[in-house]
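ok trying again, last paste got cut off:
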Amino acid sequence: MGLLLLGTGCGGADGSAGGYATVVDLSGADAEIKSFLGEARAAAQRHPQDGARRGALAMAYEANGFADAALANYAKARRLAPTDPRWPYHSAMLLAHQGELEAALDALRTAIELDPAHGAAMMWQGAWLLDLGRLDEADAAFATAQRLGVGAAAVAGQARVALRRGRADAAADLLRPLGDALLHSDVAGLLAAAARRLGRAQEARAALAAVRAGPLRWTDTRSDEKRGYEASLAAKLASARRSLAADDAEAALAAATALRDRHPRHQGLLAVQAEAYRRLGRRGEAMGVLREAVAAHPDRFSFHLNLAELLIDSDAGDAAMAHLNRALALNPRIPWAHAQRGLLLLAEGDLSSALAAFGTAWKLDPRNPEPRYYAGMAEASRQRWPQAIAHFSAAVRAAPSFTLGHVGLGRALAEAGRFDEGRLALAEAERLGTHPREAAAAREWLARRATATP
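nice, full thing came through this time. structure:
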């Protein structure tokens, strides 16, 4: 059996009045997977109005790497069992894994309405809202998760929001009481980042030196349910992903490489293998895998983004621009991609287009100071000091602990002859202490410039 046609034969192919059909190509799948999925499909067909069985089929497809089929069956399960929060929840998780965060949040909102006491749902909501730069909503979601008993992971989420807001002091206050949670790499990293922004280098080093465990996880029994639907490939892929999550890139690479001998085009395997190579510093091999991924799955914007990042680091600007453009054609709401595109345009001397790209990045993520900082640097390159000052000022308003923004502002103010204000900006940069060389060099430059100015 090489193809499966989804559907129940009741009305349309999916059991609806209008009907549709989704063909699943199983020609490259293991015999075990074919048998497993065939049994799950048969069970759904025998009970065409049973939402739980349709949802079980969707989980089987998802767990074994057939994302489109899974989404189609989750949609059917939602129609058959509209009060069951599992099906919008699993839809949300799968959509988020594909990078479709807005759609994921819509589905997750339904799941939360059906089960408002599910702490894991609030954590995912907070994480995705934070990724989209919707900080007030993210903070509220993490606060709700904390009230629901999620614990330290929810507090760490609130600390992430505080850091994005430029409130390193508030982030540190949230994190310091977390006790054993600070032994986890991601939580310790948050405290270290907050301490560095506050000029407390010793505290930052101590936080990182205390790490004894990988990233902090929260309980998500609803997602754990899907593990029971894994056949051979999916189970091994899930194990490889868990190795990556535990910062064991060597184990993840070994597992993914062995599996790709039999499944060379599998999206999940390509993603794990490329990320493992990247974490191990084997960037050339990571690029090779991502090129294979882009060729096999040209409509997955995440592959284009990851390849663009490596190409930028390798000074391959033209190739990187092509992949950034493709990623943005597939999903135009990626602030990082717009900002990187702006930097490449700036390097080419196309200042007007670069400024437009930085402006788009800023609109999509107004709490991130970097696009306005880049715009300030672009304006400074053509000595338009009022415009540069405006951009640098906006950057430090968005993130008061963004040291380079204060450095850029101090230089621009001095270039405009506003030396006293420039000194104040550079004094703030030195107080923050995260870029001492840049701040000291700017202060010395300003002193020479002020002395040379009549």
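cool. The chain is about 70% helix and 0% strand. Strands lie at 3-5, 23-25.
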